[in-house]
């Protein structure tokens, strides 16, 4: 197993004692019935011998040395499915987080550690090392292009550090870093509905790998910087972009570290749904007259670990409006019971490709079973992982963001913004074909 | 050695017959084998069926007896030191504390260091803070604390290793389920022991030159069969509780005259709280009761408040055979914990000895004394070697140690090694090792015997799941071709239930409910007999 | 952080997501009642999938549960099933199994006799309804037909040899065989759930079918552990029969087993689509009973949730599911402290012998209800006009020994819903 490969000495922690302090009131590892529902329902079970029930048993048996050094912890994506199916609501991911934190830094998978270190280095908090000044520049450049290309967006605004804007919107680094043209669809949507929003010049990055390294102080620091920026701009709502863990790490971090956040955290999905319901985003599925099938990946960080089924309902509402009810096929299981794709918890960054793909095989099967040509997901990690396993196992589906389809449906998706669409959709509803806002 | 069939009766021959497969009997077996003597060990059930399987597992530093029984205390100290050297695998040298809490007699506590000194027991006084630093579970209401070299011992492993070693040394034999029922006596000698196979009812006859009665609490009964009236025992029943997890670093003793619930002993991955002491008149139907559990807890909580919310997974009882010294002592706690070796010469027998009383801690010494007597009677000049020769371990005998199989499984990293008992993480390879090489048990080995030689059934679920998984595995191995496997599984969980019953509250209650649903609703074990006979008689069942 | 408690208003709030809770929601939806349901995994996750009505009464294995019920009414008038008419029980089972079939897991309707379902040990279990995927085993056993039981390398606790050893006496043409599940290395542990999910994908079905064909020999029936799909078991079953050319049937396995997971996931899927507000995997923390409404308070992973309901059905199960709990001295109902009928002391909770055929007194303890299935206080009066109760939380029954778990759950839910409907 390839983790960081360094030589650091493992620090042995007393899992039982620590867990007692960390668990919410009423939760208790002593209540475990050894029934195995968690192991049966955990997508990581079997990887390197990993199994949530055994994790608990080993903690109860006092096998602290083993648990303090087991590579199992890097195969668990902390998706909390085990807790979801457990009659006693026992949360294994707490122990996993604890163990990750205690690992010697140099042994941890380098990819996750580096991502977190990068986040700590710049005021952007970007894991991909995008500096704030670069971000501002890239944003302006792309915005100029959009304004020039599509007359309907000639007055597009992409505010940065706008005091008192209603929405603060965060941004995954992947777009500014490697695919800046993917920034535009979301701006167009905001413009379309006339949202009063802003980016921040600091703390704008969405991703947060510090939580996955188990380094609580770094996680706290990330959240603190971001919260501070939002507070400073006096925004009322913090909208999380299409990204799973960034949502969880923020609200959970605020709660866990007792930070003062003067705003309401919200998922972009809920606003998509709201704007569609209000008629402000008049999306329809007319473009899908050929009946292309779509399925949906519920990001665990957003659904099971955060808002729960109401957000899953919103996702489905938006998806069905976009692709047509009859063209939507749910993956099984789904909503709060969904399987993690296998890219979470830093798995994608950890460099353990073999294990990650075995984990992902179940997701691959689930996608294949739907027969869908596209998987919609509002999460960057899910997106990358599902693309990777699709390619690896020979699937023929593609993965798309919601913003792509929303803009496609509205006829405002530019040619350069179709990276994730297949040839079947490359030419559909191109701007200038006269189907935009009537 | 195989039995020879003469007529209806299987006959065995040996130099020394040892009756009783507890720690004493197996200790004698190994002691004699180290002197080159062939032994045959029998037990009416299986190894550790008596007090040796129902005790606290405390390797006494002697502190416990320092105040009242100076000799036993010194004996414990010496023997403890020896065992720590020769039986390292079976012992955890975790240390122990003696603590007094508000309300306890401060005078008793004050004298403790001096009593220890008299018995040669190292004893160090600790401040309240030091004591609670060492054992955070201790009450804030401590008034005194001392540190002593207590340790813990795995009595199952000791017994198994004793037998294993003896078998290897002289080809000595162990027969389980063999109960002595009578002796053939001729001119001051026992010629043969008449036994019964307690499973099949078959008769067995064992010819031996010397007979050792190590029947523990039953030794009075066994001696009586040989017409000896000199063994006079007091039976003292003790009940203990087992917690789901380990609650303390070392042993914690209450510093006061011995009473209920005043010792907490770690047993590797769990802890044992005990014990009660009640004089009983017979040895039938010994099982832990709700009232005993409550007494232990009420007392234990004063010392360790966390016990009030601890999950206990089982209780069990053992009977201490206390050799009655003086007339009129009725309270078991006042009787001596010393042991007695009866040569029975006063009873007109020359080749019979009874060794009883004593402690787990002193079993080696008991075996040495017995070995000396028996060897000299046989004209054997070898001296006792058990104080120096380390107890060897083996593949079939290392599975009783709590936490061992889990570590073994984890380190082995063999994904095809199925974990059959998840609570204690006992893998299939451990069961295989036990089936193939663990000393003495009927062939094929039953679930009960496997449980005795491993941690199967000893975790939180108390056999609910593993009984069924191991049974399936035994079916797979071809051990059964009828419902016998299920009958054995039912026996196993019934036996476990006797101990679980008095601790059914809190978290153990849902566990029990799940177990019963599994065994009865899902598997139909409660109706095994009806189903076996009755199925055919349900006409036409099964049409929609 | 600014976060508003999420609030819902509903006609009926069902507390518990075991069989009773799910059945209550089914019946409420059938009546068009606006419903919200809260509860996490409970006993249902462990079930065989069989829906028992009454399998044993006293010493008798019941061929006919309905005549068993008649005796039960005389001998145990306080048994929840004694307080419900045959017609209502039948309607409840019909309504429930029909709903299951519509939602995606086809069940047999209730009949006049008990079915004798197979257990993983090869013993038999009297039950009223079962998933369609298990039915063929009954005919195979009744006829003693040539049948091959397959088990799977790496699936612990399910031994085809064991099953044959136990069932074979009355079933001479029964054989066993071990196979390796496609895509799983020989001997590596594999859970039924994992195989069942894999079989949802047609490619895995193809492979398994090939293996089955290669080992089937002259068998007419093939019995397998319950792994034939989770989401669309009937399709998986049919497809495999088509691909193999044999009649296949499933046999329940010990937990963690598929039939219960199937039901839970099916409900979680189907209910929201039918307009029910479902808060899965959460427990109600407190319940306030007001004059006109009841208020449920709970926390999900994201924060506070409040449900205001006109009526409430309490279906929180027993110890395993948390509806009842016990300290060293007393058994209590956990949400409202509703009085629980119980033996006077812990020493009387369990009998000395585990398998005592009379069953353990603690299994009969539980809350008591009036004729409208409203929990009652010590005085015998209902605790609230709008609070009803259903399921094995009700005292006076021993579902484990009497094999009446689903019966109590479904029939009492049916009654509770009809009384609750009267309040709306
Ligand atoms: C509750 C309790 C707690 C204890 N705690 C400790 C402690 O912490 N530390 C310590 O040092 N000591 C402790 N002891 C004492 C210790 O357990 C015993 O001294 C020791 O186990 C005695 O072993 P034994 O082999 O002499 O007797 P046993 O273990 O009782 O063995 C006697 C055997 O003889 C067999 N037998 C009986 N009749 C027949 C027959 N007719 N035919 C064939 N076989 C027969 C029985 O089945 C049994 O296996 C405790 C004792 C009890 C009861
Ligand atoms: C091993 C096993 C095998 C079984 N096999 C069968 C079988 O073959 N046939 C059969 O008919 N039955 C079987 N059953 C039993 C069957 O599952 C139960 O009879 C049935 O589920 C009982 O239904 P219930 O809804 O009353 O209780 P439960 O299923 O126990 O459900 C209670 C629910 O209440 C929830 N809850 C508790 N407290 C709260 C709270 N505060 N807030 C919200 N929710 C709460 C729990 O999470 C749970 O979801 C089996 C059970 C087990 C354990
Ligand atoms: S599901 Fe929960 S109770 Fe069951 S084994 Fe896992 S942690 Fe324990
Ligand atoms: S958090 Fe997810 S991956 Fe980790 S043990 Fe639980 S179910 Fe498995
Ligand atoms: S990558 Fe997606 S599916 Fe995986 S843990 Fe993150 S949110 Fe969940």
In short:
Chain A is mainly α and 438 residues long. In chain A, 46% of the residues lie in helices and 5% in strands. Chain A is built from 21 helices and 7 strands.
Molecular structure report:
The complex is a heterotrimer of chains A (438), B (544) and C (424). With 438 residues, chain A is mostly helical. Chain A has 3 domains: 2-107, Orthogonal Bundle (Fumarate Reductase Iron-sulfur Protein, Chain B, domain 2); 111-272, no CATH class; 282-426, Rossmann fold, CATH 3.40.50. In chain A, 46% of the residues lie in helices and 5% in strands. In chain A, the strands form 2 sheets. A 4-stranded parallel sheet of chain A has the order 2-1-3-4. Chain A has a 3-stranded parallel sheet with strand order 5-6-7, sandwiched between helices. In chain A, helix 19 (380-393) links the parallel strand 6 (374-376) and strand 7. In chain A, helix 10 crosses helix 20, helix 12 crosses helix 13 and helix 14 (268-277) crosses helix 16. Chain A is globular and about 65 Å long. Chain B is of the alpha+beta class and 544 residues long. Chain B has 3 domains: 4-51 and 156-232 and 337-377, FAD/NAD(P)-binding domain; 90-153 and 234-323, D-Amino Acid Oxidase, Chain A, domain 2 (2-Layer Sandwich), CATH 3.30.9.10; 404-531, no CATH class. Chain B contains 16 helices and 23 strands. Chain B has helices at 23-34, 63-66, 70-86, 106-119, 128-134, 155-170, 219-225, 290-303, 363-378, 404-412, 428-437, 447-452, 466-476, 484-500, 508-522, 528-534; strands spanning 4-6, 9-19, 39-42, 58-59, 91-92, 96-101, 124-126, 142-148, 151-153, 173-175, 178-186, 189-197, 203-213, 233-243, 251-254, 263-267, 270-274, 278-280, 312-323, 339-342, 352-357, 419-421, 426-427. In chain B, the strands form 4 sheets. In chain B, strands 1, 2, 3, 10, 11, 12, 13, 20 and 21 form a 9-stranded mixed sheet that branches. In chain B, strands 6, 7, 8, 14, 15, 16, 17, 18 and 19 form a 9-stranded mixed sheet that branches. In chain B, strands 4-9-5 form a 3-stranded antiparallel sheet. In chain B, strand 22 and strand 23 form a beta hairpin. In chain B, helix 1 (23-34) crosses helix 9 and helix 3 packs across helix 4. Chain B is globular, with a radius of gyration of 24 Å. Chain B starts with a strand and ends in a 10-residue tail after the last helix. Residues 533-544 of chain B have low confidence and may be disordered. With 424 residues, chain C is an alpha/beta fold. Helices cover 30% and strands 21% of the residues of chain C. Chain C has helices at 19-30, 65-75, 86-103, 136-143, 160-167, 192-198, 202-215, 233-244, 258-273, 399-402, 405-423, and strands spanning 6-15, 35-39, 56-57, 60-61, 115-118, 124-127, 147-152, 174-179, 221-225, 247-251, 277-280, 284-289, 294-300, 303-314, 324-326, 331-333, 340-341, 366-367, 387-389. In chain C, the strands form 6 sheets. In chain C, strands 1, 2, 11, 12, 13, 14 and 19 form a 7-stranded mixed sheet that branches. A 4-stranded parallel sheet of chain C has the order 8-7-9-10, with helices on both faces. In chain C, helix 1 (19-30) packs across helix 11, helix 3 (86-103) packs across helix 11 (405-423) and helix 7 crosses helix 8 (233-244). Chain C starts with 5 loop residues before the first strand and ends with a helix. In chain C, 60% of the residues are buried. The model of chain C has no long low-confidence stretch (mean pLDDT 96). Chains in contact: A-B, A-C, B-C. At the A-C interface, helix 2, helix 13, helix 15, helix 16 and helix 18 of A face helix 6, helix 7, helix 9 and strand 11 of C. The complex binds flavin-adenine dinucleotide (2 copies) and iron/sulfur cluster (3 copies).
């Amino acid at each position: 197993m390839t983790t960081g490969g360094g030589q650091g000495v493992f620090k042995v922690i007393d899992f039982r004692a620590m867990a007692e302090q960390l668990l919410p009131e009423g939760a208790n590892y002593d209540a475990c019935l050894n029934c195995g529902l968690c192991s049966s329902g955990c997508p990581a079970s079997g990887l390197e011998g990993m199994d949530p029930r055994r994790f608990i048993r080993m903690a109860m048996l006092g096998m602290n040395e083993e648990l303090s050094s087991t590579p199992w912890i890097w195969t668990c994506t902390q998706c909390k499915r085990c807790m979801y199916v457990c009659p006693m609501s026992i949360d294994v991911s707490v122990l996993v987080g604890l163990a990750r934190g205690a690992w010697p830094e140099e042994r941890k998978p380098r990819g996750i550690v580096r991502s977190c270190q990068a986040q700590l280095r710049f005021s952007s908090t970007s894991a991909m090392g995008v500096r704030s000044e670069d971000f501002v520049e890239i944003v302006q450049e792309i915005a100029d292009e959009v304004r020039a290309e599509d007359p309907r967006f000639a007055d597009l605004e992409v505010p940065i550090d706008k005091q008192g804007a209603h929405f603060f919107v965060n941004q995954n680094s992947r777009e500014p870093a490697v695919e800046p043209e993917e920034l535009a669809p979301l701006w167009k949507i905001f413009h379309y509905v006339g949202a009063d929003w802003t980016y921040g010049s600091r703390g704008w990055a969405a991703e947060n790998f510090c939580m996955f390294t188990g380094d609580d102080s770094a996680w706290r620091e990330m959240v603190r910087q971001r919260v501070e920026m939002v507070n400073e701009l006096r925004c009322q709502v913090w909208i999380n972009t299409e990204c799973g863990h960034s949502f969880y790490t923020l609200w959970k971090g605020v709660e866990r570290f007792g930070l003062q956040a003067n705003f309401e955290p919200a998922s972009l999905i809920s606003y998509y749904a709201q704007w569609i319901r209000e008629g402000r985003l008049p999306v329809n599925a007319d473009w899908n007259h050929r009946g292309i099938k779509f399925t949906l990946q519920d990001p665990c960080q957003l659904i099971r670990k955060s808002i729960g089924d109401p957000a899953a309902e919103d996702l489905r509402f938006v998806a069905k409006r976009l692709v047509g009810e009859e063209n939507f096929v749910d993956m099984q299981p789904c909503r709060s019971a969904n399987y993690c794709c296998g890219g979470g918890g830093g798995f994608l960054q950890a460099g353990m490709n073999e294990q990650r793909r075995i984990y992902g095989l179940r997701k691959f099967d689930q996608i294949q079973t739907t027969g869908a040509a596209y998987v919609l997901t509002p999460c960057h990690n899910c997106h990358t992982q599902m693309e990777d396993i699709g390619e690896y196992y020979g699937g023929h589906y593609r993965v798309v963001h919601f913003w792509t389809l929303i803009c496609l449906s509205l006829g405002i998706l530019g040619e350069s913004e179709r990276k994730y669409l297949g040839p079947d959709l490359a030419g559909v509803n191109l701007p200038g074909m006269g189907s935009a806002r009537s | 050695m195989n039995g020879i069939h003469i007529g209806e009766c299987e006959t065995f021959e040996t130099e020394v017959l040892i009756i009783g497969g507890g720690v004493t009997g197996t200790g004698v077996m190994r002691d004699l084998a180290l002197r080159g003597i062939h032994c045959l060990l029998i037990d009416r059930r299986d190894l550790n069926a008596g007090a040796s399987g129902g005790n606290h597992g405390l390797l006494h530093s002697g502190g416990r007896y320092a105040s009242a029984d100076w000799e036993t205390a010194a004996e414990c100290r010496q023997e403890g030191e020896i065992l720590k050297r020769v039986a390292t695998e079976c012992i955890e040298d975790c240390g122990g504390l003696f603590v007094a809490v508000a309300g306890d007699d401060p005078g008793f506590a004050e004298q403790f260091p001096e009593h220890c000194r008299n018995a040669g027991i190292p004893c160090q006084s600790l401040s309240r803070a030091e004591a609670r630093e060492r054992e955070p579970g201790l009450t804030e209401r401590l008034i005194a604390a001392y540190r002593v070299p207590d340790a813990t011992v795995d009595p199952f492993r000791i017994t198994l290793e004793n037998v294993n070693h003896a078998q290897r040394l002289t080809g000595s034999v162990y027969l389980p389920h063999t109960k002595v029922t009578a002796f053939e006596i001729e001119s001051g000698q026992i010629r043969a022991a008449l036994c019964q196979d307690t499973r099949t009812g078959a008769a067995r006859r064992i010819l031996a030159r010397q007979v050792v009665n190590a029947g523990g609490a039953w030794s009075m009964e066994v001696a009586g069969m040989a017409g000896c009236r000199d063994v006079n025992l007091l039976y003292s029943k003790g009940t203990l509780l087992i917690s789901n997890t380990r609650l303390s670093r070392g042993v914690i003793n209450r510093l006061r005259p011995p009473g209920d619930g005043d010792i907490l002993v770690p047993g590797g991955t769990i802890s044992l709280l005990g014990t009660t002491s009640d004089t009983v008149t017979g040895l039938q139907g010994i099982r832990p009761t709700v009232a005993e559990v409550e007494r232990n807890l009420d007392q234990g909580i004063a010392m360790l408040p966390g016990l009030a919310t601890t999950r206990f997974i089982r209780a069990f009882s053992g009977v201490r055979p206390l050799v009655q010294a003086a007339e009129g002592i009725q309270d078991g706690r006042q009787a001596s914990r010393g042991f007695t070796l009866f040569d029975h010469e006063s009873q007109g027998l020359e080749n019979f000895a009874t060794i009883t009383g004593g402690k787990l801690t002193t079993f080696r010494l008991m075996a040495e004394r017995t070995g000396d007597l028996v060897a000299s009677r046989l004209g054997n000049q070898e001296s006792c070697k058990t104080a120096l020769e380390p107890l060897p371990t083996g593949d079939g005998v290392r599975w009783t140690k709590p936490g061992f199989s889990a570590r073994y499984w984890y380190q082995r990293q063999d994904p095809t090694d199925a974990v059959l008992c998840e609570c204690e993480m006992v893998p299939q390879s451990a069961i295989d090792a036990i089936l193939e090489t663990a000393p003495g048990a009927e062939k094929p080995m039953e679930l009960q015997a496997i449980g005795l030689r491993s941690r199967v059934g000893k975790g939180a679920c108390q056999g609910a799941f593993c009984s069924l998984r191991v049974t399936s595995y035994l079916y797979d191995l071809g051990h059964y071709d009828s419902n016998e496997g299920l009958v054995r599984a039912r026996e196993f969980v019934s036996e476990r239930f006797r101990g679980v019953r008095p601790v059914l509250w809190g978290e153990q209650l849902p566990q029990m409910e799940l177990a019963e649903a599994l065994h009865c609703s899902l598997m139909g074990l409660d109706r095994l007999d009806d189903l076996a006979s009755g199925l055919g008689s349900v006409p036409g069942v099964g049409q929609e | 952080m600014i976060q508003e408690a999420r609030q819902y208003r509903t006609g009926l709030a069902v507390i518990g997501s075991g069989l009773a809770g799910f059945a209550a929601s089914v019946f409420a939806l059938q009546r068009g009642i606006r419903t919200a349901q809260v509860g996490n995994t409970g006993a249902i996750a462990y079930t065989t999938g069989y829906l028992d009505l009454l399998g044993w009464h006293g010493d008798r294995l019941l061929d006919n549960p309905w005549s068993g019920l008649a005796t039960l009414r005389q001998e145990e008038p306080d048994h929840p099933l004694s307080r419900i008419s045959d017609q209502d029980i039948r309607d409840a089972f019909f309504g429930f199994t029909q709903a299951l079939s519509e939602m995606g897991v086809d069940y047999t309707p209730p009949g006049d006799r008990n079915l004798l379902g197979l257990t993983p040990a090869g013993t038999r279990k009297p039950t009223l309804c079962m998933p369609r995927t298990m039915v063929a085993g009954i005919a195979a056993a009744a006829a003693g037909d040539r049948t091959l039981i397959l088990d799977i390398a790496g699936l612990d606790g399910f031994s085809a040899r064991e099953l044959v050893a136990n069932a074979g006496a009355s079933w001479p043409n029964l054989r066993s065989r071990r196979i390796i599940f496609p895509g799983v290395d020989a001997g590596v542990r594999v859970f039924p759930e994992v195989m069942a999910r894999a079989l949802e994908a047609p490619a895995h079905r193809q492979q398994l079918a090939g293996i089955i064909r290669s080992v089937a020999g002259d068998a007419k029936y093939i019995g397998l552990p319950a792994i034939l799909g989770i989401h669309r078991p009937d399709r998986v079953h049919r497809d495999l029969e088509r691909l193999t050319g044999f009649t296949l049937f499933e046999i329940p396995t010990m937990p963690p087993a598929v039939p219960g997971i199937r039901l839970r996931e099916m409900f979680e899927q189907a209910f929201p689509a039918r307009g029910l507000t479902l808060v899965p995997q959460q427990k109600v923390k407190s319940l306030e009973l007001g004059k006109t409404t009841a208020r449920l308070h709970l926390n999900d992973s994201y924060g506070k949730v409040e449900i205001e309901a006109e009526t409430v059905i309490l279906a929180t199960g027993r110890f395993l599911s948390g509806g009842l709990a016990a300290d060293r001295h007393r058994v209590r109902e956990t949400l409202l402290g509703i009085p629980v009928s119980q033996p006077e002391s812990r020493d009387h909770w369990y009998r000395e012998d585990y398998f005592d055929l009379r069953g353990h007194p603690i299994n009969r303890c539980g809350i008591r209800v009036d004729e409208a299935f409203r929990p009652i206080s010590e005085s015998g009066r209902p605790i609230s006009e709008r609070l009803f109760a259903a399921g094995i939380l009700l005292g006076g029954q021993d579902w484990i020994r009497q094999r009446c778990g689903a019966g109590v759950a479904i029939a009492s839910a049916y009654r509770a819903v009809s009384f609750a409907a009267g309040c709306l």
